[in-house]
Amino acid sequence: MIYNKTIETLPLVELRKLQNKRLKHTLNRLYKQVPFYKKQFDNLGLLPEDVKGVEDLHQLPFTKKSDLRDHYPFGLFTCAPNKLSRIHASSGTTGKPTVVGYTKNDLAIFDEVVARSLACAGAKPGMRLHNAYGYGLFTGGLGMHGGAEKIGMAVIPISGGMTDRQLRLLEDFQSEVICCTPSYAQTIAFECEKRGINPSRFNLKYAVLGAEPWTEAIRSDIEKKLQLKATNIYGLSEIIGPGVSQEDFEEQGTGSYIWEDHFFPEIVDKDSGKPLPYGQEGVLIFTTLTKEAFPVLRYWTNDICSLTYDYSSKRTHIKMSAIKGRSDDMLIIRGVNLFHTQVESILTDIPELSANYQLVVTKAEAMDKVTVKVEMNASNTSDNINLATHFARKIKTNIGISMDVILETPGTIPRSEGGKLNRIVDLRNK
Ligand code: ADP
What we know:
By secondary structure, this protein is of the alpha/beta class. It contains eleven helices and 21 strands. It has a nine-stranded mixed beta sheet. The protein has a four-stranded antiparallel beta sheet with strand order 10-11-12-15.
């Protein structure tokens, strides 16, 4: 189902016109209301009207997470605090939290893009959504909630964690759709296996998974074990929350549609910041086009992917590839760049191994060393030494780095307890 057919299939020429009109409005708002942005324009000797359209955006500077922290809590907002309807924030474990705000209109846009995303993932009015994204300051839970209600679903606001209760309600309430992090979907699947619960006792048809990088290896693991179709949802609180982009359940593996009428994307080189052409991998940048309380100009997401227009698909909006990782999570091992998703991708081809793994990075005699710990599938009967050698060889061939492989029995490597899972343990500076 296409939730908003007119907009989602708008011819590209029309889409650009709409984006340019909205961009003009956003730039004026930022220039007039936020001293930080006015200063940026003044430094460049530019006025908002000098930016004729989205193709001129590259002339403007990026906005980074540190700018949000420097203006904590409301310094980059374009409306007075008494006009806000909601405030979200990051956990702030590594410093001041980043704070984002929404007016009533912003929340309506949030609902709209999540409704589009859910429909794109296979959901229909009348279905139930088992919403296992965290509720609270994190945008996941409440964000999915609003969009699901808008599309006409009943929401089970279970939040993350307490897996026993999740399993019970999945069976009792017969929800057709689940949303959570991919690693938590793996936990649910694993706990079913452990307890001998056949997922056919549930009624799940679709999983909408996001908030962390994941690959086809995890998709096939979840789809097989939970007997459903899993698609990717992407978002970040600085732009709106989940629902910035979504993969279509009938176009799996071809990328996720970015709802371009609200969020204009660019890809730039991670070192030079220079714009890169479609299809090339770099840092994803967003400019919001319709936000009222907290519009952002060229926000540096740190997420690495590429953009392409897929003319054979159902909608006209641009697609982003699966996120490879965050540029600040990239490991440099003996001079070679490494994202953990590259190791994960290889697991797709080795059915004896599960998609639950961890990379442990250490230093041995001044050399970085990576050990991959991976759980075997319960059904594995092959020789462990051969299996480990086979995996290590594939890693070396595909990635160019030698890694030690340790095979573990199912249930020994940490799993998500409800939210995002960190798959890298870096012990080099410990
Ligand atoms: P926090 O910053 O507190 O973790 P956010 O929800 O704003 O909370 O996190 C957004 C980040 O999560 C994104 O910038 C990206 O790195 C990651 N993310 C979200 N969705 C996906 C996805 N589908 N695939 C990969 N990474 C994702």
